[in-house]
Amino acid sequence: MNEGSITISSILVPGLTRVSFPGTSKKKTLEHIAAAISQEIPELSEEDLFENLIAREKLGSTGIGQGIAIPHSRMLRCSKVIGALFTLEQDIAFDAIDNQPVNLLFVLIVPKEASSEHLELLSQIAERFNDSSFCNKLRAASSDSELYTLMTES
Q1: Kind and range of the H or E element at 13?
Q2: Is 71 within 8 Å of 59 (Cβ atoms)?
Q3: HSE, side-chain direction, 13 A CA sphere, residue 133
Q4: Closest CA to 19 of 88, 114, 105
Q5: Max alpha carbon distance in the chain (Å)?
Q6: Using CA atoms, how far apart are residues 129 and 106, in angstroms rounded to an integer?
Q7: Across-strand partners of 74?
Q8: Which long-range contacts (CB under 8 A, 24 or more apart) does 133-137 make?
Q9: What's the CA gap between 77 and 46, in Å, rounded?
Q10: Could you give the residue numbers annotated as active site?
Q11: Domain-by-domain residue ranges, the chain?
């Protein structure tokens, strides 16, 4: 890893790390996520976030299997990489590659021009989520701060 590389702990926003997040479908969950991100990062419009996340899902589901999805999008008004982590209050259908419902989401919002960083982060996140015992710890977190600590200490 080079010195300028971005780490999960440098992009994960504490206020966007939440347990038992609401959502009854992929669309509803992404709506709730867009609202949460725009509340925390006011320069990003809730509508733009939602439209970008939905547009990305139309290209192919970001559900990577084993109950995990990594919705991501490039945004024009985004000045820095933003990471958000949610455990869902209920499993939802997400068109994941293994057809299993999803209950753990890592959302990545990146500036329009950040491409290599974007890919580097996606691979870091996917690598972390490859560890099923780590994912089970995340799902078992009982508070937002516990979830944040689990994801950032490693």
Answers
A1: strand 12-21
A2: no
A3: 0
A4: 88
A5: 41
A6: 10
A7: 110
A8: 135/66, 135/67, 135/68, 135/104
A9: 12
A10: 72
A11: 8-152
Burial class (CB in 10 A: 0-12, 13-18, 19+), 74: middle
CB of 135 within 8 A of CB of 104? yes
Superfamily for domain range 8-152: Mannitol-specific EII; Chain A (3.40.930.10)
Element housing 111 (H / E): strand 102-111
DSSP 101: -
* DSSP 3-state of 86: strand
Residue 2 pLDDT level (bands cut at 50, 70, 90): very low
pLDDT at residue 141 tops 50 = yes
**pTM of the shown model:** 0.93
Closest CA to 72 of 136, 120, 21, 14: 120
Copy the structure tokens of residue 152: 């950032």
